[in-house]
């Protein structure tokens, strides 16, 4: 893939994220309204707390849309200047925080959607509670609904952010010599 196609691909992915997130927000909001007015929702899962499920979905897609917009801004600034400037660090910070919030929202949604799998009636000792919580965590948070990808993405972006901070310092030092 040549340089020109790669640049267009980044912008296309960011725009697709913004548009698809906006469409999802419209649908989830539209599906939430009947549930709030006392009718049954055929979209929300039958287990857990349906209103919480909708709130987490709407919040997640709002964050996806925000990240898409931030990436578009970062892409445009980099395209104009050819490098990341100091204001790009704030964008990286916002995207990293967004990833952490997405992971937290995923944990909350997974927990409340599967709360019946905790089998609290079997909590007869500290060992039983620990065992049940460990099984629940491994089964749902690691195997079925891995939220670790958001944590990994946040860590990778933090490393890139540290590289950008160092590059800006070196750039400023070089400009001060000239």
Poorly predicted ranges: none
Overall helicity: over 70%
Major sheet attributes: none
Work out the oligomeric state of the chains in this entry: single chain
Task: Report the mean per-residue pLDDT as an integer.
Answer: 83
Class of secondary structure makeup: mainly alpha
In total, how many domains does the architecture comprise? 1
The radius of gyration computed from the alpha-carbon positions, rounded to a whole number of angstroms, is 21 Å
The helix count comes to: 5
For the secondary structure, the number of strands is: 0
Q: How would you spell out the order of helices and strands?
A: HHHHH
Cα separation of the termini: 36 Å
What is the overall silhouette?
flat
The amount of beta strand, in percent, is: under 5%
Could you characterize what this model shows?
This protein has one domain. The chain is flat. The protein has five helices and no strands. It is mainly alpha-helical.
Chain-wise SSE layout:
Layout: H1 3-36, H2 50-81, H3 87-113, H4 126-144, H5 148-177
List keywords for this structure.
mainly alpha; flat; 80% helix
Question: How is this structure best summarized?
Answer:
Helices cover 80% and strands 0% of the residues.
């Amino acid at each position: 893939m040549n340089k020109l196609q790669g640049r267009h691909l980044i912008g296309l992915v960011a725009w697709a994220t913004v548009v698809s997130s906006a469409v999802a927000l419209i649908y989830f909001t539209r599906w939430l309204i009947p549930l709030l007015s006392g009718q049954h929702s055929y979209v929300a899962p039958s287990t857990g707390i349906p209103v919480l499920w909708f709130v987490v979905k709407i919040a997640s897609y709002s964050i996806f849309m925000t990240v898409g917009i931030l990436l578009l801004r970062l892409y445009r600034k980099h395209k104009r200047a050819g490098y990341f400037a100091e204001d790009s660090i704030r964008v990286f910070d916002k995207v990293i925080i967004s990833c952490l919030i997405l992971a937290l929202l995923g944990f909350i949604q997974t927990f409340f959607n599967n709360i019946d799998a905790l089998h609290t009636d079997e909590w007869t000792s500290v060992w039983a509670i620990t065992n049940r919580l460990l099984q629940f965590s491994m089964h749902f948070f690691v195997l079925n609904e891995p939220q670790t990808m958001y944590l990994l993405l946040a860590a990778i972006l933090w490393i890139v952010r540290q590289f950008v901070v160092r590059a800006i310092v070196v750039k400023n030092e070089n400009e001060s010599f000239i």
